[in-house]
Amino acid sequence: MPSLVSITLFLPLLGALLVMALRKAPAQVVHSIGIVVSGLTLTGAVLMWSRGVNETGFAQLEQFDWMPAIGAAYRVGVDGISLPLVLLSALLFFVTFIYSAKVRERSHAYVVLLLLLETAAIGTFTALDAILFYVFFEVSLVSMYFMIAGWGHEDRQRAALMFFLYTLLGSLPLLLAILGLYLGSDPHTFDMRVWIDKPPLTGTAAMPALVAMLFTFAVKTPVFPFHTWLPAAHVQAPAAGSVILAGVMLKFGTYGLIRFALQMTPGAFRDAGIAILVLGVVSALYGAFAALAQSDLKRLIAYTSVNHMGYIIVGVAIAALALDPAIRATALDGSVLQMVSHGLVTGALFFLVGMLQDRARTREMDRFGGLLKVTPLLGWSFVLAAFASLGLPGLAHFPAEFQIFLATLRVEPVADVVILGIVITAGLYLKAISRVFLGEPREQWAGMADLNVREVLALGPLLILIIALGIAPAWVLDIIHQTTAALRF
Amino acid sequence: MARDLAFLIPEIMVLLTAILALAAEMLRLPRTALMVTLAGLLLATGLSMPLLGAHTSVFSGTFRIDTLSIWAKLILLPATLLSVLLARAELGGSDREGTVYSLLCLVTLGALLLAGAGDTMLLVLGVLLSGLGSFALVAYPRNDSATEAAMKFFVFASVTGGVMIFGLSYWFGGTGSTLLSDLARLDTAPVVAAVGLVAVIVGLGYKASLVPFHFWAPDAYEGAPVSIAAYLSVAPKIGAILALAQVVRDLPVATGWPMVVALIAVLTMTYGYLAALAQDNVVRLLAYSSIAQAGYFLLGIVAVGASPLAFESMIVFAAAYAAMNLGAFAVVMCTGRTLAALSGIGRSHPVMGVAMVVFLLSLVGIPPLAGFVGKFLLFGASIDAGFIWLTVIAIINSVLSLAVYLRVVVPMYQRRDDARVKDLAPMPLVKLVWVNAFVFTLGVGLAAQVLLGQLDRPLQ
After folding, report:
1. pTM of the entire structure?
2. Looking at this predicted complex, what is its ipTM?
3. CA-CA distances (angstroms) from residue B346 to A22, A23, B354?
4. Which of A149, B8, B123, B139 could form a cystine bridge with B150, CB 3.0-4.6 A?
5. Range of the domain at B384
6. pLDDT at B252
7. Do B438 and B387 lie in a common domain?
């Protein structure tokens, strides 16, 4: 009997095979399969959550031989860093399937790709073998390439190509680092737990490996100046693709930063800590300023992602620099929670922009106005998500960013200049809200329909969780903290 | 003598098959020739199995029965079988059909001799045997483009073959022996060793289409029937690469061969993909891609003697390469040679489209496909041998290769209302080939252990 983790991991893949087998099935049936399968996967993730994690390392382990000749095995399990991300992924895929139920163009291929992407995402977060991790990491690229190229907007081919080339270039250095760690471990193994417990590379050998990994994860996160693929990919991707890209796939970068860079080359990471911190600060501020300059709503949200992910980099760098374990735990708690919050908030925002675009065929802020009166449900949802995104207390981002800034203040107070980013995002969201939703409604949009049931069902869970996480973050933080408090490096 | 012959049963089987196929053709029984060839190749594959694990040489050390040569049989014989099926689909019913099967067997025999060569004279024999058969196969259609292609191929091969024999005479002079295992004696004669090395690289480099000895390949592939191009990109190339491995195994490192091979690898990979970027003909694109892929093989060669991963990685990559390359050529046979002919194929023929995407992504080295496992091991071998810079260049080239292969993928999924695309002639034999290649490309990726476990050199 496979473990719960494996069942959750491979359910979407089985669903994809089922859809492929039913080539004649109508679109509704195919979408229903997608919703049911991702619902079951979400149930699996919730059950995993209820089983929890333990302080001594990874929980809910499963392992069997795969390529014993080279020391690679199928190894999966979760800890407090990966479990929240698994739950987040399962939830985001579930609501994405609900949202996508309207897609009629080649719905078979669409559902297959999305399900494949779901397995890849959950696999990336649960893999404890470096080869397995890399496999899932790359499969997600391929699926996302076809998502953008197949269902994107006007200039999709170019954007998809750029996305694929850029992120492949980004991920190959990780392969080098993995090979380095493998050849450095004795006996040779790809077991990530072994690498974490006893980092195989030390001293000068560790630095090239760290640089390679940093490059990979900086492209994926993305960190300024490696972010240029992001706006192009987001603008051209279909709304569902944007939600998954921002909500789930950007987390691969920050998750990898903690799991690989920080945990497997801790010494080198500490040596490079200040440089990484600077990268995070610059990235957060750059993202905020760049977002301020956008008039396209989707680009705006894409750039705020650069800003929010920058805070995570800051948090991880502070964790590496901190000498006091309590502060280190606080910084990492904030970083991991920020990943979850960003997934929920940005997911909701991309859905909302997608819904606007479905109605108006444009994303230019200046072409709207007064929509709060025409479509109150859509408008207030956007206001709520935007306030969450700018870090309003009581909403999801606040507890996360607060912990990161608090730890920063204790370790490198200067770096708290990054808080300036919050001021700028506040400004840009207020500008966006006033342009799009406030004022007198334009005649052009008088007939615009408000959210329908499908859209409410897709958005509802995210908005509820944004509030829940803001008011009572403890239920997530407890899980995260069990692991971060016990980390030694 | 009897012992030595027993070790050569698969090779003898292939030779017999070639003769019988030719005999059947002379009796005007092409169908019988086909059946004989298929049965003979299958039998030879089966007879190679018991050899696994052997490590010896026959006929006074001139032919080696080792991991490389045994796996060459297990990879090239099935690959030839698939090529025969492709050739049947493309050339079936034409004049002298049976000679094609016979020639395919002979060229494969040449490639097998190369892969197990323990003697410089066997290198020459292998190059000539596989070369002569190849010219005839390329020229088979007897039209202008095929004749021109074969002529270029022939002239190029004659010159490089001559250079190789000339250079090998220096080794003979230096060691007093034609055996590769005596090359270690050249320790004290670096100039002699270097001249011979250059000669071998010229001779085998042409066969494996390494840059700068690759000029014949795109023209020959384009002029030849697609099935023959598919075959030439696999069997002789793998044979030549493995022969190079046999040579450098015994060559003193003091000659500097690892660096020479590494530089050729860089040239081959980079030039191959850059040139492929400019092609509109899919066969030419695949020709340049197969040039570049040969460069990846060299990452294993530079690690020979320095990393236990060297042979393992070359064998796994050879198996992967044979499957994905034959698969890609098979799909091209179904669709037509131009990029335009491929447009919309992914929509009108979803299964074949997925298979083609899998072949191409496997050629890039995307996990979990066969090409990934092969390249991953090659990268590991060259890092282990201290060639980190070479691995970095190989990785950058992998990104370049993605741009090359996506040029094929993108039109496949373009919308096209043209009804012409929808009804491709059904080609059951070709379908059989790409389905097999597809299963193998996926299978080796996910279950590489089956291959790795058989290789007799455990890593740990």
Report:
1. 0.92
2. 0.89
3. 18, 15, 7
4. B139
5. 256-460
6. 87
7. yes
